Amino acid sequence: MDILEAKKIWSEVKAELRETIPTHAYYTWIDTMEAAGFEYNTFSLITVHALGVQILRQNYYAKMSEAFKKIIGKEVEITITYDDDLAKEYEQQKRREKKREDKKPVSMIQEETPESKAMENLAQMQSFANLNLKYKFENFVVGENSRFAHALAYSVAQNPAKKYNPLFIYGGSGLGKTHLMQAIGHYIIFNNPKLKVRYVKTEEYVTDFINSINPMKKTSGKSKKSPDAEFRDKYRNIDVLLMDDIQFLESKTQTMNAVFHTFDDLLNKNKQIVITSDRLPKDIPTLPDRLRTRFEMGIVTDITPPDFETRVAILKNLADQISLNADFSVFEYIANNFVSNVRELEGAFNKVTAYADIEQTEVTLEFVKKVLNCESVKKEISIENVAKVTADYFGVSIAEFQSSARSQKISNARHVAVFLSREITEKSFENIAEFFNKKHTTMLYSYEKIKDELKVKKELEKSVREIKSLLKG
């Protein structure tokens, strides 16, 4: 198709998108794109923003597809490419416009354009809000382990401070709590840019608080406010506070007091708070009741380890992001060998793709087995290894595992050791029974017991995860 025709189609599509995409987002991402061609049912667009390809595909691709279908009358493939030359030309044009504006008398200077406001909002997102661009709702894979938490997070993002305030998300490390929390922040900034969002790790909050009460810390050159006033402004003059890993407050009495007053101030102003933790509020030692009740006054939800189907879906999503075509057996192999959390799963996938990129080879099952070498790792870990590490973890001995002792402490630890022996070594229940000096049916009972309890007992899930880490060394 002639380029002029393509540009005409794109102009009409933009008119459609202008009605469906928020003004700030439209002028930043859509209006600045140009048509590059339309061949073989693929419409090519170029963007002047290095982040444009990722942001457009993750946030506005569906709406763009609908607009093209409405204008052209059929579905088309859309490709978006970053063009460095066009970007330079765009920046030069912006500088020329700024110079012209600077030379005008104050009375002639025009108001901010929607585009300039949009770029200002983008800058806010990158610096003030402290968010990572990769954490969006669009690339969060929802499974049975996270369905309720995702629904609550999305509801909060759509209507901050209207309900579910605060939202408290808890679960083990690497399960997606931070992803959901930051997805809330991104959604609000892109769809409600007037609201001020701030994401902070609790450790960073603690550091800021310590600096604010440090008598040796002087007032900064940029502000005449005292350090404690700057601290209060930073965390109270906002609309959405996202606080990650709140369990790090444990035993920090003064900081807990500061958090209480921050939360109290924000809640009284009807501002949204989202909190994550690796455990329930009631399971954080030394947490005062007045702070615990603040955490629990909205809604508390959890994220558990992903099941097999969700792990495969996560891997396929990662593959789609880099346009990797691989056989199902590849995803199946990785999903079967990395089960504890999403971070571990992504790490295995990234290792495989990095090796494939370096060696310039296809990602096949044989290649994945060679890179990850999971069978070799499993062979190196014996039932005795598992039993010893588990026994040490719970403060018992292998001899007690193999005895007829039935105290709760020994019995519970033995159940875990049996479960991990089956999961990690993949030995038969007969082999495991032989080592523990027990019946095959007893081993089967122990395995099923722990498997069921892991679905509801967060402390148990944490213990199993930690023992696995110790075994991997």
Q: How many beta-strand elements? A: 8
* Proportion of residues in extended strands: 5-15%
Low-confidence stretches: 106-113
Alpha carbon gap, first and last residue:
60 Å
Q: What is the helix fraction of residues, given as a range? A: 55-70%
Q: Major sheet: size, sense and barrel closure?
A: 5 strands, parallel
Sheet with the most strands: spatial strand order = 5-6-7-4-8
Write down the Rg: 27 Å
Q: Please identify the structural class as seen in this structure.
A: alpha/beta
Average predicted confidence as pLDDT: 84
How would you describe the shape? globular
Number of helices: 23
Would you give an account of this structure?
Helices cover 60% and strands 9% of the residues. α1 packs across α4 (61-72), α2 crosses α6 (114-128) and α7 (147-158) packs parallel to α8 (177-191). It has a 5-stranded parallel sheet, sandwiched between helices. The protein has a 3-stranded mixed sheet with strand order 1-2-3. The chain contains 23 helices and 8 strands. The protein has helices at 3-20, 23-30, 52-59, 61-72, 84-103, 114-128, 147-158, 177-191, 202-212, 227-236, 253-268, 289-296, 308-321, 328-337, 342-359, 365-372, 374-380, 383-394, 398-402, 408-425, 429-436, 440-453, 458-472; strands at residues 34-39, 42-47, 77-82, 167-170, 197-201, 240-244, 272-277, 299-302.
